[in-house]
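TL;DR need C-alpha cells for one chain.
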Amino acid sequence: MAVPLREMLYVGAGGFLGANSRFLLSRAISQWFGAGFPYATLLINVSGSFVLGFFLIWATERVTADYNLRMFVAVGFCGGYTTFSSYTFETFSLLEQGHYWLAVTNFLGNNLMALTGAVLGAMLARSI
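>> reply
TL;DR here they are.
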C-alpha cells in the first residue's frame, strides 16, 4: 500500500519541528536543572502527552480537524517531540549505575505524569 507523498511531507515537517523543539527545550531544561536527573526527558514526555491528549480530542470531538493537520501534529510533531526511547535508556542507565531510587522515580514519574498529562489535555479539550 503506497503512502501519499503529501502525507509523508506533513508527518516529516511535524517531526522536524517536534525533534528540534525537543532538542532546544532539552538543552534549556538541562541548563536550568542540571544533569543529575533526566528532568528534560520527564518534562518533555509529560508536555508531549498533554499536547497529544488535548489535540486528538480537540481534533476529533470538537472541530474535526483536517486529516493532514492530525498527521502533522499527532504523528509528526508529537512523535518527534516525545522521548520515550530516551526515557527507557536513561532509566536503564540509572539502574546500571546503582541509582535505584532515581530509576524508580524516573520510571514512575514518566509513566504516571505522562498519563496525567494526556488525561488533563483531553479534559481541557472537552471543556472548551
